[in-house]
Structures are given as C-alpha cells and as structure tokens.
Amino acid sequence: MPVQVIMPQLGESVVEGTVMQWLKAEGSAVERFEPLLAVNTDKVDTEIPSPAAGTLLRILVPEGETVRAGTVLAWIGQPGEAIGEEKPALSPAREGTTSKEKRKLGFISPVVARLAREHQVDLREVRGTGEGGRITKKDVLSYIEERNRAAPATPTAPWETPADGDLFRPVELPVTAAESSPQPARGRLIRLDPLRKAIAENLAASMRNAPHVTTMMEADMTRATAHRAAHRELFARDGVRLTFTAYFVSAIVTALKAYPVVNSSWTEEGILVHSQINIGMAVSLGDQGLIVPVIKNADGLSLLGLARTINDLAERTRLRRLQPDEVHGGTFTLTNHGTSGSLFATPVINQPQCGILGVGAIKKRVVVIEDMIAVRPMVYLSLTFDHRVVDGFTADGFLAKVVEALESW
C-alpha cells in the first residue's frame, strides 16, 4: 500500500521546515533510507530519507514552501496504486523471518539511515533509547559493536571521522537559491536564501531588543601556545586536531563558572540563569553566512573532549550534516573573527543569550613585562553583553577571568 512521506519534527523546538530540494522526481524509483529531499530548519539543511522502497508517486509540497511538522509531503508506492485515503505516516515493516519483531520505526535521521546502509543493519533489531523510542546514532553504533564483537572491527564511516581544519575556516559551497540575476539599471541583485534571511532577521532583532555594550582586553597566549605545541602530536594520535578554539572555549567555561549571571537570558519575569553551560561557536560558510552549532555541557569536557567535539561539529557544519537540535540550546557564544586578520570587533549577541566573546588574530607584539620589553603572542578579546542583564563591573570581571585562564595554562 502507498506510504506517506511526512515532514518530521527534527528537534524539540523545531515545528516547521522548508522544502529546499526534491532529490527524486515523480515517477522515480527510490530505495528505503535513500535521501529523498532536503529540508531547511533554522539554518540547518537536513536530508530526509525515504521511509520505504518503491516509486515516488506524487509530490504534494513544492520546493521553497514552508510547512509544519506532520504535514504529508509526498506518497511512495507501486506504479498504478491509488492515492487518496489517509495512510499511516510510518511505513510497514519489511517482510522477513517470523522471528523478527514487526514494529514501526518512526522517524529515522539521515545519520542513522547512512549507518544502517553502510553496515547492513536491520533497524527493526535495534533498540531505540531516544525520546519516544527513537533510534539514535549511539544505538546503531552500540548494536554494530555488539554484533561485531567477535569479528574484525568495522572501519569507521567517513562521515563520522573528525576532520582536520580550523574551526572558522570558510568553505566554498555551490550556489543554489542565492543565485544572482542581472539588473541593468542598478547593478546585480543577489537573491536571499533562507540562511541569509534567518541571519538578517536574528541580528536585526538582537540589536533592537538588547542594549549592546562591548568591553575589550588582551591576553598573553605564551603559555597556551606552548601547551598546544607540546600536545598537538599526542592529540593527533587520538585522531583529534588541537586548535586554539578548544582553549578559548575552556577559558569561557572557567569564567562562566565564576560569573554565572553571564550564562543567562533576559525574560519579562526576570533573569534566567541557565543550569547548563552550552557554548555556541560561529562556523563560517564563506559568502553563504555562518551557522552556530552548540557544544552541549561544555563544562563536563576535558580539553581533549572539547577539541574532539569542535572538530566534529565544525566539519559537519561545513558538510551541512548538522541536526537541528545541534544549533539550539546555546547559553553563550564564541566567534573567532581573527582568522581573517581582524584584531578588534564588536559582535552582535546571539539571542536569547546575554553575551558573546569575539577573538581577534593572535599576533606577536612588543609588550612590557615587569619593566622589561618582551615579544609575546597576544590576542584581543571583546565581550559584547546585554546591559539589561550584566553591568560593566561584572562584564569586566568575567573577561578578566577569561584572560587569567588563557594565561595560566
């Protein structure tokens, strides 16, 4: 019988999505879990896998249209099958041996679908530990490990391998919706894609809603630089590229613990001090804009754990393989404008947070230390904060703590 393709709810706070591209045309054959369409939700593009094998009988929602989670997007079935009466949103289980449990799988994320295809995993045999029994990547990996315990280890899938590269290095992406069209009288019009629109709306709203103030200090990176040089090879043995970003995130965590009010949000009822420390990190996509994935519970990670998480999130951001929940829930943000040589900047607060730390380029400069002239690697740090929440005295104390943490490695 025909199967519905449903717009999934890709995160707890994600209630709608925009159909960016159909990867299959009506009448095309599709395999189960094969990428079927690309959906954009809050700056994140996600490939939605096919819930069943068959033929794409009809597309109901065209490209560019935004619909709520639960909307029927298309139908998949066999050629000639009638479409009309409502069908369950979930596809029926495949036929197999009678000993297998014929259960409905629910929404399967692209990462889970790829893992299942790569390792030939029947997802009906995997116990889901996610919300509502949803099968997570961790569930599939645990199943594969258990299944192959007595066999040679299966190579890690390419998309799960942390890649090299600095966190904020721009990448070149193919032009899609942001195609330019000639305007003879007034120049060239660059049409706005959903990502650029979302960035513009968020930044404009932030400047309207919060009184922005920026304070700046500089930090001597001598000890952090020496520590990184001494540990880069050791981290590389674990497949992790150690960049300065991990040091800046670690310093932010230390400062947020000392000044919890900076890890908060303004509400009409009062100042909400967050119980978790979730650090957002701005990742540049070149001319396409930027996305801010979030390091959840950053205070529970070692320097190695931070570096590994940063590698993973940055790489998947550039490959457009983030999950929508991975750009939500941030309580403070780091942006590294120094990769392009910038020394100073006044970043815009990423609402509803109350602070963002800008990091300039690390440059060797002549400084005076204990009445002696020395050449040290120095960096300017700028803290932009919501003056409704944080006063100058607290902001300066927080930034001084960041400097102290960087200089104490």
TrEMBL record:
Keywords from the named record: Acyltransferase, Lipoyl, Transferase
Asked whether the keyword Acyltransferase is assigned, the reply is yes
Q: Which Pfam families match?
A: 2-oxoacid_dh, Biotin_lipoyl, E3_binding
Domain Peripheral subunit-binding (PSBD): residue ranges: 107-144
Domain called Lipoyl-binding: residue spans = 2-77
Provide a GO CC annotation, any one. cytoplasm
Please give the Gene Ontology molecular function terms for this protein: acetyltransferase activity; lipoic acid binding
Question: Which cofactors must be present for this protein to function?
Answer: (R)-lipoate
Q: What InterPro entries does the annotation carry?
A: 2-oxoA_DH_lipoyl-BS, 2-oxoacid_DH_actylTfrase, 2-oxoacid_DH_E2_comp, Biotin_lipoyl, CAT-like_dom_sf, E3-bd_dom_sf, PSBD, Single_hybrid_motif
Give the similarity note. Belongs to the 2-oxoacid dehydrogenase family.
Q: What is this protein called?
A: Dihydrolipoamide acetyltransferase component of pyruvate dehydrogenase complex
Q: Which taxonomic lineage is given here?
A: Bacteria, Bacillati, Chloroflexota, Anaerolineae, Anaerolineales
